[in-house]
Structures are given as C-alpha cells and as structure tokens.
Amino acid sequence: MPLPAGFRAHAGAAGLREHGDDVFVVVADGPSVASSAVFTRSLFAGPSVVLSRENAAGGRARGVVVVAKNANVATGDQGMADAREVLERAAGAVGVAPEELLIASTGVIGRRYPMSILRTHLDGLAGAEFDADALALAAAMMTTDTHPKTASVEMTTTSGATARVVGIAKGVGMVEPDMATMIAVVFTDAAVEPGVLDTAFRGAVDDTFNCLSVDTDTSTSDTAIAVASGVAGPVDEGELRRALEAVCLDLTLQLARDGEGATKLLTVEVTGARDRDQAKRVAKAILNSPLVKTAVHGADPNWGRVAMAIGKCHDDTDIDPERVRIVFGDLETYPAFPGEAELERLTEIMRAEEVTISVDLGVEGGAADGSCTVYGCDLSREYISINADYTT
Amino acid sequence: MPLPAGFRAHAGAAGLREHGDDVFVVVADGPSVASSAVFTRSLFAGPSVVLSRENAAGGRARGVVVVAKNANVATGDQGMADAREVLERAAGAVGVAPEELLIASTGVIGRRYPMSILRTHLDGLAGAEFDADALALAAAMMTTDTHPKTASVEMTTTSGATARVVGIAKGVGMVEPDMATMIAVVFTDAAVEPGVLDTAFRGAVDDTFNCLSVDTDTSTSDTAIAVASGVAGPVDEGELRRALEAVCLDLTLQLARDGEGATKLLTVEVTGARDRDQAKRVAKAILNSPLVKTAVHGADPNWGRVAMAIGKCHDDTDIDPERVRIVFGDLETYPAFPGEAELERLTEIMRAEEVTISVDLGVEGGAADGSCTVYGCDLSREYISINADYTT
C-alpha cells in the first residue's frame, strides 16, 4: 500500500530489536503541509509526547519519527535530552527543522534509548532510499502486535481528481484511550488548512480510537497524528471527515481484533441514553468487565453479567432496570428471557468471531444522540501469558 | 468456631446445589438486639437487597437468611414476590416477624429461585436443630470460593467480661465494592445501640471490604450485615470499632487471597496524597490494572506498569511524576532505579506469596490522612478458565 502523494518515508533496523525494522521517518515536502495530533492524557507522558505536543501546536508539522521497542518514559532529564537529539538528527537527515518533526515511541517504560545505535542509524539516513510504503512503516512500529495494520480510503478533490487517506496503527495491550491511544499515523495528499484537518481528525479519533479498549490500561506514549501533504489539491470538508473516519475505524477494528490474546471482536452498542457521555460510560463498563469478556471468550450468552456491568454505573440514577433491553446479536435476552428453542441460536451467535452486544437503556427524555458504539475483544488465557511473561 | 452468645443458627441443604448446604438462617433472640447493614450500589440490585434495605432501616433486625447458588436478580416482580415468601417462611420457622429478618442471595443472575424446594426446606426448619457454627454458615454460602471464610476477635465488656465478634464472608469474583461487597455477616454478643453499631460497622467496612477488588466488577447482590445479640453486655465504642475492623480486615484478606484464580495477595499502599479519596483512586488504579496484576502473577518487578497506572489518574493534576516514589516490598524502584545488585532481591520480593507495592505521591500540601491501603490479587489463566467456563 503506497503512501499518498507528497510523502517520502524510510523504515530501517537500528538494532533496538533482534529482528526487523524498528525506526521509521516520514516527511512531506510540499508547500501546503498541514497536521493534527492528539496525545495520551497520562500524567507519566514521556518526552516524545511532550516534544510532539510542542511541535504539533502550530498545525504545520511535516513528518514523524517513530522508535519501537522503547517508550522512553520515566527516564528523567536525560530521556528528554535523548528525545531532542533523536529529533535533531532525524530532521538533519531529511533536511527539515527539528520543530517540523513529531516523535512517537513505544515499548518498555523506564529504560533509556540505546543512543549510540540510534545515532549511527539516523546519521546514515542522509544517503538512504526513502521509498517505504505504509505496510513497511506499520511493521516497523509493532510491539506485541501479530501483524502490521494499515487502512486506505479514496476521496475526490473539488477539481475531480483523486486524493487518498492512508493510515497505520499499532497497539494491542495497554489500550484504553481517553484522548488518543496507541500510535496511529494517518497520511493524506489532500490540501487542507490545519484548523480544518484538526477538527476533522479529532472528530474521527473521538468516534474510533477513543471508543477502543483492550484492557482498561492507558499507555504513557499514545499518539495519533495526521499529516497532509497537499499535493492532490483541496477536498470538501465532509468528504475529508468521512475518509478520516473510515480509515480510523478500519484501524480501530484491526487493533481490537488483534488485542493481546484476543480470539473475538467484541462490539458494544448502547442506545437510548440521556446523552452520548452516558452511552459511552455504560458501553465501556460492559466492554471492560472481565466477567463479560471471559463469558464472550467462553461463548457463554451470560446476559446477567451485562446487567451487572450496567448496574455498576450507579451514579446514573436515571437508568431504570425495568426499561433496559439487552440483545446478543439479534436476539433479545432481557427482559424477554430466551426460551429453550432460542438457546441454540444464542450459542451460535456467541461462537462467532464477532460478537455484538446491544443495550437500549430506555432513559426517559433521552437525547437523539444518546448512543455510542465501542470496540474491544474477549479476555483469554493468552492475555495472561503474554503479560505475565513479557519482560520489563 | 462457635457464634457469639445469643445466636441460634441452622445451615442445611435445600437442594439448590448438588452437594452441601445452600441455605442458612441465623437469629438473635435477646431483648437488646441491634443491627447494621450496607448494600451494593448497583442499579440492578436484586429483591434481596431491596427487602433487606427496608428491614435494616430501623437498626433492629434480628437475623439473616442466606440463599446460595442463585442471586435472584433481574427476575422481575415474581422475583420480588419469591424473596418475600422466603423471608416469611423463614421468619415463621424461627418465630420472628418477617420484618425482623434480612435476606441475602448469591449466585447466577437472571434465574428465578427454585421455590418448591425452598418451601419444603424452610417449612421443615421448625423442628430442626439450631446449632450451626460459623464455619458451617460460611460453607453454606460459598460459590466459587475454595474454602469457607471466618474470623473471630475477643473484646472486654465494661464490666470485665468477655464479648466476641465473629464474622463470615464469601465472594471471590465480581468483587469491586463501592459500598458493600460480596456477602459478609458479622455477629457479636456485645450490647450496643443501633446507632453506635452502625457508625462502627460502616467505618470498619469502609477501611476493609470497600478497599478490596478482585476484578473491578461489582456484584448486584453484595451485602454486609452486623447483628448484635447484646447477651455479653456493653463494650466501649473504641473497643467495638477495633474488633469489628480486625474481623472485617481478616475476612478481606481471606477474600483477596482466594480471589478467582489468585496465586498471590497483592496489597497496594498509597501515601502522600491530597486526601484519602485521591489515595484510594490511585491505589485502585494500580490494584485493578490488568498489566500490573499479570506482572505480579509473573513475578516481574515491572514498576513501569505501576507508573502507567498512576498516570491514568490524569484528572489528578497535582500529582507530579517527579515527586512520586514507587517501592516494591522494601526496595525503591523509582526514581532510584534498582541496580544489578538489587535485581536478585527484587525477584525474591516478587516471588513471595504476598506482594506489597507502596507509592508515595509526594503531593505538595497533602493531608495527614492522604493515604489508603487496598487489597486484591494477581490475574492468572485460572481466572479466565473459571469465568469462561462457569455456566450462566
């Protein structure tokens, strides 16, 4: 999958991990570059997030450096100096100012970058080929991901030409975004003002990455970045928003399916809420309940655990259990208890690779937008194995 | 372990489960009975909680009926009628008014009580021996508990005699109390006014059961009850509070150690917070993080995950990562990174059956009471097995 027009990219192996690429640099050279970025709200946000937040502020960042295997978090003043040096050397190699680049890191927390191998690698970039495609970039930033994640959508520019949105993402554990999540980078060749890109990208992120949870844990390093090269010409705002949302949703579903140890995609749709915040709170309570997740893993249509999870939202006193409806797939389980005849169909629904739980809260006077859909996965023994045995 | 003086109790097998006792009734006959009770805040609280809340209001409940294997939750109007009938028949059998009894149920959600076997059992109680001890009662209410949980403490009455507090508890999954948790019943023969008992019991519950979490899921049926028979005479308020707290803490630790699939007791102590609420919020974020829990399971001193969990409390903007200290056992891991020499000791600390993580937040101007200790367990493959395979 090629990047949109106007980008050059290099993925290479600096040696942070034993096999495969572990650093990439991508940059847009055109005159009308725009960018948008959202970051983790963690109190322990690392130097990469701090520096990128500064450099993203003007909406004119041209590119990104991503370092895999090491999050460079909780590494003190030296960690900040290391991050600045990486930005400077990368910027020097591709001929832009350090302030025009963003940086994202992912991996172990609490260890310094191996600076000597990073220096050697970055200084060697000046003479390298910059022809990496989206798949190569996505592969270079994987941690426990089982496969690289890319997505692409076409748009039509106002002059009738074709523009593209191409996104890449990583992150299968420590995933419960509240503002951004994991690392996602979205490229487009559309020409767009930074303010317009920012509004469209934040909206798309809110409905996709921010509705994803693998394990309720929020990374210290999460970053979602969009960069527009402008080469393909202007697109309509609505068209841009739809394309960004389609790419981000596609990546979100890939991340959920590849959640650590996941065997199923779990989608929870809540409707009939007072407002979207309430719908999201209830949907997340269901999606994140270890008892719901293990029931889904065991293909057990345990709607009682869904009721339990809704019941945890006890500050939402306008939710009346007698007005709640719980549906597995297309079969209502509460209050219309499934009979013997429906048990076979229920079992079939639960055994599928994608399970959807729909809840109508029936809140009186609920808003038209009182709904939210969230994405996650089941909880398996494999999640425990990955995380009990994964070294610090 | 005998109950305190002034109680008579019966545990029997109504047939709700295949083997063993599944119903118990305990009642205090004396003239100066007092009681206190706290319940789940779940929106889906079942008829047992609704009825017990009514009957506990005056602080003069004399006893409790507990039904195992079936929570009688989300069972509609019929479930409420069934719960009333169980209370009436049990009260009739022991010769008290139905309003003087509390009821607690635990087990599957969304199925009606098997009323015919319950009727037969309760009507047969009139001629039964009432000589069950604490262990028999605790065993009769187990679900996935691996052993019955009891605790006992002695007090000295104001006249120099001995009074006792004896408690029983169950609950190893769906445990994250916010007001009460699981089912716990505490008996004492001390003579105490309902208001005094209530204050002392709620204080004890807040520092013990409400600081316990196995899996972040809050039961729809959780109930903690204290009943005083008054037979042993008055005790000092402070003595009562200390005894209640000791019994509740003992039971809390037993519940944490027996958490579903648990191999280790995990204690998290947070100090140096702005106030107790902040300390508890941070402590729970650490205790409930699946990545911290799996690291503890794998004996991995992964303090980076503890930093991550603290970082999730991003609304607590007065927490400054540079002032935070993280200690495993008695060894500081952040900001004083452990050296090679300490790794062996760290590994030893992590391999023990009890792991304590201490965090000093160092919040400037923090209150003297800005601390909280919470109790939980590791997360193992066995938790998944129990809950993926446990039938609705």
TrEMBL record, chains A, B:
Transmembrane segments: none annotated. GO terms for molecular function: L-glutamate N-acetyltransferase activity; L-glutamate N-acetyltransferase activity, acting on acetyl-L-ornithine as donor. Keywords: Acyltransferase, Amino-acid biosynthesis, Arginine biosynthesis, Autocatalytic cleavage, Cytoplasm, Multifunctional enzyme, Transferase. GO terms for biological process: L-arginine biosynthetic process; ornithine biosynthetic process. It catalyses: N(2)-acetyl-L-ornithine + L-glutamate = N-acetyl-L-glutamate + L-ornithine; L-glutamate + acetyl-CoA = N-acetyl-L-glutamate + CoA + H(+). The keyword Zinc does not apply. Belongs to the ArgJ family. This is Arginine biosynthesis bifunctional protein ArgJ. It comes from Dietzia psychralcaliphila.
